[in-house]
Design the sequence.
Protein backbone atom coordinates (compact mmCIF):
# COMPACT_ATOMS: atom_id res chain seq x y z
CA UNK A 1 0.00 0.00 0.00
CA UNK A 2 1.55 3.31 -1.02
CA UNK A 3 1.83 5.88 1.74
CA UNK A 4 2.45 9.57 1.84
CA UNK A 5 3.98 11.93 4.38
CA UNK A 6 2.37 15.32 5.04
CA UNK A 7 4.50 18.37 5.64
CA UNK A 8 3.02 21.64 6.79
CA UNK A 9 4.97 24.85 6.34
CA UNK A 10 2.98 27.94 7.36
CA UNK A 11 -0.27 27.73 5.41
CA UNK A 12 1.04 25.29 2.86
CA UNK A 13 0.61 21.56 3.21
CA UNK A 14 2.34 19.17 0.83
CA UNK A 15 2.05 15.44 0.47
CA UNK A 16 5.26 13.60 -0.19
CA UNK A 17 5.44 9.99 -1.38
CA UNK A 18 6.91 7.39 0.98
CA UNK A 19 9.12 4.85 -0.75
CA UNK A 20 9.50 1.38 0.75
CA UNK A 21 12.55 -0.85 0.35
CA UNK A 22 12.51 -4.65 0.12
CA UNK A 23 13.58 -5.00 3.78
CA UNK A 24 10.86 -2.66 4.98
CA UNK A 25 12.84 0.59 5.40
CA UNK A 26 10.89 3.65 4.39
CA UNK A 27 12.00 6.96 2.97
CA UNK A 28 10.22 10.21 2.24
CA UNK A 29 10.81 11.13 -1.39
CA UNK A 30 11.61 14.84 -1.28
CA UNK A 31 12.79 15.35 -4.84
CA UNK A 32 9.92 17.77 -5.64
CA UNK A 33 9.93 19.50 -2.24
CA UNK A 34 11.79 22.61 -3.37
CA UNK A 35 9.72 23.25 -6.46
CA UNK A 36 6.52 22.92 -4.40
CA UNK A 37 7.55 24.77 -1.23
CA UNK A 38 10.84 26.60 -1.88
CA UNK A 39 12.41 24.51 0.89
CA UNK A 40 15.47 22.32 0.78
CA UNK A 41 16.47 19.81 3.47
CA UNK A 42 19.52 20.19 5.69
CA UNK A 43 21.35 17.04 6.78
CA UNK A 44 25.08 17.51 7.54
CA UNK A 45 27.01 14.33 6.89
CA UNK A 46 23.94 12.91 5.06
CA UNK A 47 23.29 10.73 8.12
CA UNK A 48 19.55 10.74 7.40
CA UNK A 49 19.60 11.02 3.64
CA UNK A 50 19.11 8.19 1.16
CA UNK A 51 21.09 9.20 -1.91
CA UNK A 52 19.83 6.41 -4.16
CA UNK A 53 17.94 3.13 -4.33
CA UNK A 54 20.40 0.25 -4.32
CA UNK A 55 20.08 -3.53 -4.61
CA UNK A 56 23.69 -4.41 -3.73
CA UNK A 57 24.15 -4.56 0.05
CA UNK A 58 21.77 -4.54 2.98
CA UNK A 59 22.87 -3.43 6.45
CA UNK A 60 20.62 -3.56 9.53
CA UNK A 61 22.66 -1.89 12.23
CA UNK A 62 20.12 -2.58 14.96
CA UNK A 63 20.15 -6.33 14.42
CA UNK A 64 23.78 -6.64 13.25
CA UNK A 65 22.86 -7.93 9.80
CA UNK A 66 24.94 -7.58 6.64
CA UNK A 67 23.98 -9.19 3.33
CA UNK A 68 25.56 -9.04 -0.12
CA UNK A 69 22.92 -9.31 -2.86
CA UNK A 70 20.64 -10.94 -0.27
CA UNK A 71 23.21 -13.47 1.02
CA UNK A 72 24.18 -13.18 4.72
CA UNK A 73 27.86 -12.39 5.08
CA UNK A 74 28.39 -15.37 7.41
CA UNK A 75 27.76 -17.73 4.49
CA UNK A 76 31.03 -16.74 2.84
CA UNK A 77 33.06 -17.83 5.86
CA UNK A 78 33.32 -21.56 5.16
CA UNK A 79 35.23 -21.50 1.86
CA UNK A 80 35.98 -17.85 1.22
CA UNK A 81 36.50 -16.91 -2.41
CA UNK A 82 36.96 -13.19 -3.03
CA UNK A 83 36.74 -13.47 -6.83
CA UNK A 84 33.32 -15.11 -6.62
CA UNK A 85 32.06 -12.41 -4.24
CA UNK A 86 33.43 -9.66 -6.49
CA UNK A 87 31.40 -11.03 -9.39
CA UNK A 88 28.33 -11.42 -7.18
CA UNK A 89 28.48 -7.80 -6.06
CA UNK A 90 29.07 -6.37 -9.51
CA UNK A 91 26.65 -8.49 -11.52
CA UNK A 92 23.97 -9.23 -8.94
CA UNK A 93 24.11 -13.03 -8.59
CA UNK A 94 26.64 -15.80 -8.03
CA UNK A 95 28.51 -16.64 -11.24
CA UNK A 96 27.88 -19.95 -12.98
CA UNK A 97 30.89 -22.14 -13.82
CA UNK A 98 31.50 -20.57 -17.22
CA UNK A 99 31.19 -17.01 -15.89
CA UNK A 100 33.51 -17.74 -12.99
CA UNK A 101 36.17 -19.33 -15.23
CA UNK A 102 35.98 -16.47 -17.71
CA UNK A 103 36.30 -13.82 -15.01
CA UNK A 104 39.17 -15.68 -13.30
CA UNK A 105 40.99 -15.97 -16.62
CA UNK A 106 40.55 -12.25 -17.23
CA UNK A 107 41.99 -11.55 -13.79
CA UNK A 108 44.99 -13.76 -14.55
CA UNK A 109 45.53 -12.39 -18.06
CA UNK A 110 45.46 -8.78 -16.88
CA UNK A 111 47.62 -8.90 -13.77
CA UNK A 112 50.67 -7.39 -15.44
CA UNK A 113 51.28 -3.66 -15.66
CA UNK A 114 52.53 -1.97 -18.78
CA UNK A 115 56.33 -1.82 -18.37
CA UNK A 116 56.22 1.98 -18.65
CA UNK A 117 54.12 2.14 -15.50
CA UNK A 118 57.02 0.81 -13.45
CA UNK A 119 58.93 4.05 -14.01
CA UNK A 120 56.16 5.98 -12.29
CA UNK A 121 56.82 4.11 -9.05
CA UNK A 122 60.41 5.26 -9.09
CA UNK A 123 59.25 8.88 -9.15
CA UNK A 124 57.73 8.59 -5.67
CA UNK A 125 59.85 9.09 -2.58
CA UNK A 126 60.49 5.88 -0.63
CA UNK A 127 58.40 7.24 2.23
CA UNK A 128 55.37 8.08 0.05
CA UNK A 129 52.08 6.93 1.65
CA UNK A 130 50.95 3.83 -0.28
CA UNK A 131 47.38 5.18 -0.50
CA UNK A 132 48.68 8.25 -2.38
CA UNK A 133 50.57 5.98 -4.76
CA UNK A 134 47.55 3.73 -5.24
CA UNK A 135 45.22 6.57 -6.09
CA UNK A 136 47.73 8.17 -8.47
CA UNK A 137 48.48 4.87 -10.16
CA UNK A 138 44.83 3.95 -10.70
CA UNK A 139 44.46 7.23 -12.56
CA UNK A 140 47.67 6.49 -14.45
CA UNK A 141 46.21 3.12 -15.38
CA UNK A 142 43.32 4.87 -17.07
CA UNK A 143 45.83 6.49 -19.48
CA UNK A 144 46.75 3.00 -20.67
CA UNK A 145 43.11 2.01 -21.18
CA UNK A 146 41.29 4.80 -23.02
CA UNK A 147 39.12 2.08 -24.59
CA UNK A 148 37.32 1.85 -21.23
CA UNK A 149 36.45 5.53 -20.85
CA UNK A 150 33.01 4.80 -22.28
CA UNK A 151 31.58 1.43 -21.34
CA UNK A 152 29.02 0.32 -23.90
CA UNK A 153 27.67 -2.86 -22.32
CA UNK A 154 27.98 -5.43 -19.58
CA UNK A 155 30.76 -7.33 -21.34
CA UNK A 156 32.94 -4.20 -21.59
CA UNK A 157 32.20 -3.41 -17.94
CA UNK A 158 33.33 -6.93 -17.04
CA UNK A 159 36.61 -6.43 -18.91
CA UNK A 160 37.26 -3.05 -17.29
CA UNK A 161 36.36 -4.45 -13.85
CA UNK A 162 38.69 -7.41 -14.33
CA UNK A 163 41.56 -5.10 -15.27
CA UNK A 164 41.01 -2.90 -12.25
CA UNK A 165 40.51 -5.70 -9.73
CA UNK A 166 43.49 -7.58 -11.10
CA UNK A 167 45.91 -4.69 -11.49
CA UNK A 168 45.09 -3.01 -8.18
CA UNK A 169 46.85 -5.86 -6.39
CA UNK A 170 49.91 -5.48 -8.63
CA UNK A 171 49.93 -1.72 -7.98
CA UNK A 172 49.64 -2.31 -4.23
CA UNK A 173 52.43 -4.90 -4.18
CA UNK A 174 54.72 -2.72 -6.33
CA UNK A 175 54.12 0.28 -4.05
CA UNK A 176 55.24 -1.87 -1.12
CA UNK A 177 58.28 -3.30 -2.94
CA UNK A 178 59.34 0.15 -4.05
CA UNK A 179 59.08 1.50 -0.50
CA UNK A 180 61.41 -1.28 0.70
CA UNK A 181 63.83 -1.11 -2.23
CA UNK A 182 62.92 -4.69 -3.17
CA UNK A 183 62.83 -5.98 -6.77
CA UNK A 184 59.35 -6.13 -8.33
CA UNK A 185 57.94 -9.62 -8.66
CA UNK A 186 55.91 -10.21 -11.82
CA UNK A 187 52.49 -11.81 -11.27
CA UNK A 188 52.53 -15.57 -11.62
CA UNK A 189 49.78 -16.75 -14.04
CA UNK A 190 49.58 -20.10 -12.25
CA UNK A 191 48.47 -18.53 -8.99
CA UNK A 192 44.89 -17.59 -8.09
CA UNK A 193 43.98 -14.07 -7.01
CA UNK A 194 44.96 -13.92 -3.34
CA UNK A 195 48.04 -16.15 -3.61
CA UNK A 196 49.26 -14.06 -6.52
CA UNK A 197 49.01 -10.92 -4.41
CA UNK A 198 50.96 -12.55 -1.58
CA UNK A 199 53.53 -13.77 -4.11
CA UNK A 200 54.03 -10.24 -5.50
CA UNK A 201 54.31 -8.90 -1.95
CA UNK A 202 56.62 -11.46 -0.39
CA UNK A 203 58.40 -13.72 -2.92
CA UNK A 204 62.03 -13.06 -3.68
CA UNK A 205 63.63 -13.80 -7.05
CA UNK A 206 65.44 -16.77 -5.47
CA UNK A 207 62.71 -17.80 -3.03
CA UNK A 208 58.99 -18.16 -3.78
CA UNK A 209 56.58 -17.33 -0.98
CA UNK A 210 54.21 -20.25 -0.52
CA UNK A 211 51.87 -19.67 2.41
CA UNK A 212 49.68 -22.37 3.96
CA UNK A 213 45.97 -22.56 3.05
CA UNK A 214 44.92 -20.93 6.31
CA UNK A 215 46.76 -17.75 5.30
CA UNK A 216 45.13 -17.75 1.85
CA UNK A 217 41.71 -18.29 3.41
CA UNK A 218 42.19 -15.57 6.02
CA UNK A 219 43.07 -12.99 3.37
CA UNK A 220 40.22 -14.10 1.09
CA UNK A 221 37.81 -13.70 3.99
CA UNK A 222 39.21 -10.35 5.03
CA UNK A 223 38.85 -9.00 1.48
CA UNK A 224 35.28 -10.34 1.28
CA UNK A 225 34.31 -8.68 4.56
CA UNK A 226 35.56 -5.33 3.25
CA UNK A 227 34.04 -5.71 -0.23
CA UNK A 228 30.99 -3.49 0.25
CA UNK A 229 29.13 -1.59 2.93
CA UNK A 230 26.49 0.33 0.99
CA UNK A 231 26.71 4.15 0.95
CA UNK A 232 29.83 4.66 3.08
CA UNK A 233 32.11 7.63 2.49
CA UNK A 234 34.34 6.14 -0.23
CA UNK A 235 31.48 4.46 -2.08
CA UNK A 236 29.45 7.67 -2.02
CA UNK A 237 32.56 9.41 -3.39
CA UNK A 238 32.81 6.93 -6.24
CA UNK A 239 29.13 7.49 -7.00
CA UNK A 240 29.50 11.26 -6.77
CA UNK A 241 32.43 11.34 -9.19
CA UNK A 242 30.77 8.79 -11.46
CA UNK A 243 27.58 10.85 -11.53
CA UNK A 244 29.50 13.45 -13.53
CA UNK A 245 30.09 10.61 -16.04
CA UNK A 246 33.74 10.38 -15.02
CA UNK A 247 35.16 7.03 -16.10
CA UNK A 248 35.37 3.99 -13.82
CA UNK A 249 39.12 4.33 -13.19
CA UNK A 250 38.91 8.01 -12.21
CA UNK A 251 35.90 7.33 -9.97
CA UNK A 252 37.70 4.50 -8.14
CA UNK A 253 40.87 6.59 -7.75
CA UNK A 254 38.69 9.15 -5.93
CA UNK A 255 37.31 6.33 -3.76
CA UNK A 256 40.87 5.48 -2.67
CA UNK A 257 41.40 9.09 -1.55
CA UNK A 258 38.24 9.01 0.58
CA UNK A 259 39.16 5.65 2.09
CA UNK A 260 42.56 7.02 3.06
CA UNK A 261 40.95 9.19 5.78
CA UNK A 262 41.53 8.04 9.40
CA UNK A 263 37.80 8.25 10.13
CA UNK A 264 37.15 5.73 7.38
CA UNK A 265 39.66 3.13 6.17
CA UNK A 266 42.47 4.31 8.43
CA UNK A 267 40.93 3.06 11.70
CA UNK A 268 42.47 -0.44 11.52
CA UNK A 269 45.91 1.17 11.82
CA UNK A 270 44.81 3.01 14.95
CA UNK A 271 43.55 -0.21 16.55
CA UNK A 272 46.93 -1.80 16.11
CA UNK A 273 48.67 1.26 17.51
CA UNK A 274 46.35 1.13 20.54
CA UNK A 275 47.12 -2.56 21.14
CA UNK A 276 50.84 -1.89 20.79
CA UNK A 277 50.63 1.04 23.18
CA UNK A 278 49.05 -1.22 25.78
CA UNK A 279 51.61 -3.93 25.11
CA UNK A 280 54.68 -1.68 25.13
CA UNK A 281 53.64 0.75 27.79
CA UNK A 282 52.83 -1.99 30.30
CA UNK A 283 49.38 -0.43 30.61
CA UNK A 284 46.73 -3.00 31.39
CA UNK A 285 43.62 -3.34 29.22
CA UNK A 286 41.60 -2.35 32.31
CA UNK A 287 43.55 0.90 32.58
CA UNK A 288 43.04 1.67 28.88
CA UNK A 289 39.29 1.10 29.09
CA UNK A 290 39.16 3.35 32.15
CA UNK A 291 40.93 6.05 30.12
CA UNK A 292 38.52 5.63 27.19
CA UNK A 293 35.44 6.10 29.36
CA UNK A 294 36.96 8.72 31.61
CA UNK A 295 35.48 12.21 31.83
CA UNK A 296 38.16 13.81 29.66
CA UNK A 297 37.76 11.19 26.91
CA UNK A 298 41.38 11.64 25.85
CA UNK A 299 41.40 8.31 24.04
CA UNK A 300 38.79 6.15 22.36
CA UNK A 301 38.63 2.43 22.45
CA UNK A 302 39.63 2.07 18.82
CA UNK A 303 37.74 -0.57 16.85
CA UNK A 304 34.68 -0.03 19.03
CA UNK A 305 31.50 1.74 18.03
CA UNK A 306 29.95 2.34 14.63
CA UNK A 307 27.63 4.93 13.12
CA UNK A 308 25.28 2.26 11.78
CA UNK A 309 25.82 -0.83 13.95
CA UNK A 310 24.24 -0.53 17.38
CA UNK A 311 24.80 -4.22 17.90
CA UNK A 312 27.68 -6.54 16.99
CA UNK A 313 29.25 -5.68 13.66
CA UNK A 314 28.88 -9.14 12.06
CA UNK A 315 32.23 -8.63 10.31
CA UNK A 316 33.98 -8.30 13.68
CA UNK A 317 32.47 -11.57 14.92
CA UNK A 318 33.66 -13.39 11.80
CA UNK A 319 37.12 -11.81 11.94
CA UNK A 320 37.55 -12.77 15.57
CA UNK A 321 36.87 -16.40 14.62
CA UNK A 322 39.25 -16.04 11.64
CA UNK A 323 42.00 -14.68 13.90
CA UNK A 324 41.55 -17.57 16.36
CA UNK A 325 41.70 -20.07 13.47
CA UNK A 326 44.77 -18.47 11.94
CA UNK A 327 46.75 -18.43 15.15
CA UNK A 328 45.71 -21.95 16.16
CA UNK A 329 46.51 -23.48 12.78
CA UNK A 330 49.82 -21.68 12.49
CA UNK A 331 50.60 -22.74 16.05
CA UNK A 332 51.60 -19.24 17.07
CA UNK A 333 50.39 -16.72 19.58
CA UNK A 334 50.29 -12.95 19.59
CA UNK A 335 50.12 -10.90 22.76
CA UNK A 336 48.08 -8.33 20.80
CA UNK A 337 45.32 -10.89 20.22
CA UNK A 338 45.20 -11.62 23.95
CA UNK A 339 44.98 -7.89 24.67
CA UNK A 340 42.18 -7.47 22.11
CA UNK A 341 40.20 -10.37 23.61
CA UNK A 342 40.58 -8.90 27.09
CA UNK A 343 39.56 -5.40 25.95
CA UNK A 344 36.46 -6.85 24.32
CA UNK A 345 35.58 -8.83 27.45
CA UNK A 346 35.89 -5.80 29.69
CA UNK A 347 34.02 -3.42 27.39
CA UNK A 348 31.12 -5.78 26.78
CA UNK A 349 30.44 -5.92 30.52
CA UNK A 350 30.97 -2.24 31.20
CA UNK A 351 27.81 -0.09 31.48
CA UNK A 352 29.58 2.80 29.67
CA UNK A 353 29.90 0.72 26.48
CA UNK A 354 26.70 -1.26 26.99
CA UNK A 355 24.55 1.87 27.46
CA UNK A 356 26.04 3.56 24.40
CA UNK A 357 25.71 0.36 22.39
CA UNK A 358 29.40 0.29 21.51
CA UNK A 359 30.48 -3.07 20.12
CA UNK A 360 33.60 -4.24 18.26
CA UNK A 361 33.62 -3.13 14.63
CA UNK A 362 35.35 -4.61 11.56
CA UNK A 363 38.64 -2.90 12.40
CA UNK A 364 39.01 -4.45 15.83
CA UNK A 365 40.47 -7.77 14.63
CA UNK A 366 41.50 -7.02 11.04
CA UNK A 367 44.83 -5.41 11.96
CA UNK A 368 45.85 -8.40 14.06
CA UNK A 369 45.19 -10.71 11.12
CA UNK A 370 47.00 -8.47 8.63
CA UNK A 371 50.01 -8.21 10.93
CA UNK A 372 50.17 -12.00 11.17
CA UNK A 373 50.10 -12.20 7.36
CA UNK A 374 53.19 -9.99 7.28
CA UNK A 375 51.39 -6.93 5.87
CA UNK A 376 53.08 -3.80 7.22
CA UNK A 377 50.87 -1.33 9.07
CA UNK A 378 51.07 1.37 6.41
CA UNK A 379 49.62 -1.13 3.88
CA UNK A 380 46.53 -2.00 5.96
CA UNK A 381 44.32 0.60 4.27
CA UNK A 382 45.65 -0.45 0.86
CA UNK A 383 44.45 -4.01 1.54
CA UNK A 384 41.09 -2.53 2.56
CA UNK A 385 41.02 -0.74 -0.83
CA UNK A 386 41.73 -3.98 -2.72
CA UNK A 387 38.79 -5.51 -0.87
CA UNK A 388 36.46 -2.54 -1.40
CA UNK A 389 37.12 -2.21 -5.14
CA UNK A 390 34.39 -4.66 -6.29
CA UNK A 391 31.89 -2.73 -4.15
CA UNK A 392 32.90 0.56 -5.78
CA UNK A 393 32.62 -0.99 -9.24
CA UNK A 394 29.21 -2.49 -8.39
CA UNK A 395 27.91 0.91 -7.25
CA UNK A 396 29.41 2.72 -10.26
CA UNK A 397 27.69 0.19 -12.55
CA UNK A 398 24.38 0.32 -10.68
CA UNK A 399 24.36 4.09 -10.89
CA UNK A 400 25.19 4.10 -14.58
CA UNK A 401 22.13 1.88 -15.23
CA UNK A 402 19.80 3.77 -12.88
CA UNK A 403 16.94 5.54 -14.73
CA UNK A 404 16.89 8.11 -11.87
CA UNK A 405 20.56 8.92 -12.45
CA UNK A 406 21.41 12.62 -12.25
CA UNK A 407 24.62 14.46 -11.53
CA UNK A 408 25.09 14.55 -7.74
CA UNK A 409 24.70 18.16 -6.77
CA UNK A 410 23.47 18.84 -3.23
CA UNK A 411 22.02 22.18 -2.18
CA UNK A 412 23.14 24.28 0.75
CA UNK A 413 21.79 26.86 3.16
CA UNK A 414 23.84 29.97 2.51
CA UNK A 415 24.84 31.78 5.74
CA UNK A 416 27.45 34.22 4.39
CA UNK A 417 27.42 38.00 3.80
CA UNK A 418 24.67 39.51 1.72
CA UNK A 419 24.70 42.32 -0.85
CA UNK A 420 28.22 43.69 -0.34
CA UNK A 421 29.94 45.91 -2.92
CA UNK A 422 33.30 45.27 -4.63
CA UNK A 423 35.91 47.67 -3.21
CA UNK A 424 38.91 48.49 -5.44
CA UNK A 425 42.31 47.67 -3.80
CA UNK A 426 43.30 51.34 -3.22
CA UNK A 427 40.08 52.05 -1.30
CA UNK A 428 40.35 49.08 1.09
CA UNK A 429 41.20 49.73 4.72
N1 LIG B 1 35.43 4.61 22.83
C1 LIG B 1 34.90 5.32 23.83
N2 LIG B 1 33.76 6.04 23.71
C2 LIG B 1 33.14 6.01 22.52
C3 LIG B 1 33.63 5.28 21.43
C4 LIG B 1 34.82 4.55 21.61
N3 LIG B 1 35.34 3.81 20.61
N4 LIG B 1 32.83 5.44 20.37
C5 LIG B 1 31.85 6.26 20.77
N5 LIG B 1 32.03 6.59 22.08
C6 LIG B 1 31.12 7.41 22.91
C7 LIG B 1 31.23 8.87 22.57
O1 LIG B 1 32.22 9.51 23.37
C8 LIG B 1 29.83 9.35 22.87
O2 LIG B 1 29.69 9.42 24.28
P1 LIG B 1 28.76 10.57 24.95
O3 LIG B 1 27.36 10.24 24.52
O4 LIG B 1 29.01 10.42 26.42
O5 LIG B 1 29.25 11.87 24.40
C9 LIG B 1 28.95 8.18 22.42
O6 LIG B 1 29.80 7.02 22.56
C10 LIG B 1 28.47 8.31 20.97
O7 LIG B 1 29.61 8.51 20.15
P2 LIG B 1 29.60 9.29 18.75
O8 LIG B 1 30.98 9.77 18.45
O9 LIG B 1 28.50 10.28 18.74
O10 LIG B 1 29.22 8.13 17.76
P3 LIG B 1 29.31 8.20 16.17
O11 LIG B 1 28.27 7.29 15.66
O12 LIG B 1 29.31 9.60 15.69
O13 LIG B 1 30.78 7.63 15.88
C11 LIG B 1 32.56 6.14 15.48
C12 LIG B 1 31.03 6.34 15.45
C13 LIG B 1 33.28 7.29 14.75
C14 LIG B 1 32.89 4.83 14.75
C15 LIG B 1 33.00 6.07 16.97
O14 LIG B 1 32.33 5.02 17.65
C16 LIG B 1 34.51 5.92 17.11
O15 LIG B 1 35.23 6.92 17.07
N6 LIG B 1 35.01 4.65 17.25
C17 LIG B 1 36.44 4.43 17.32
C18 LIG B 1 37.06 4.53 15.93
C19 LIG B 1 36.75 3.34 15.06
O16 LIG B 1 36.87 2.18 15.47
N7 LIG B 1 36.37 3.60 13.78
C20 LIG B 1 36.09 2.54 12.79
C21 LIG B 1 34.62 2.50 12.43
S1 LIG B 1 34.30 1.17 11.30
C22 LIG B 1 34.80 1.73 9.79
O17 LIG B 1 34.82 2.89 9.51
C23 LIG B 1 35.24 0.74 8.72
Sequence:
Amino acid sequence: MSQTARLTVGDTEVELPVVQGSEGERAVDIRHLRERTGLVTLDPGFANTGSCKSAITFVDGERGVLRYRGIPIEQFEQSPNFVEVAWLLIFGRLPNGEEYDRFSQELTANANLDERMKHHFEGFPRSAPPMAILSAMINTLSCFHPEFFELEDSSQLEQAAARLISKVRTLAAYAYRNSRGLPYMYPNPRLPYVLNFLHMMFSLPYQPYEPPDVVRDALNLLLILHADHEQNCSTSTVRMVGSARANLFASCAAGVCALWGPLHGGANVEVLEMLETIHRGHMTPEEYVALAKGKEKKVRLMGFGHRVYKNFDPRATILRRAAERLFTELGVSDPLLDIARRLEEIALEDPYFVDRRLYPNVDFYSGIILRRLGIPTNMFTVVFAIGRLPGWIAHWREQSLDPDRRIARPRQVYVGETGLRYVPPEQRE
About this structure: The longest helix spans residues 154-180. Residues 144 and 303 are 39 Å apart (CA to CA).
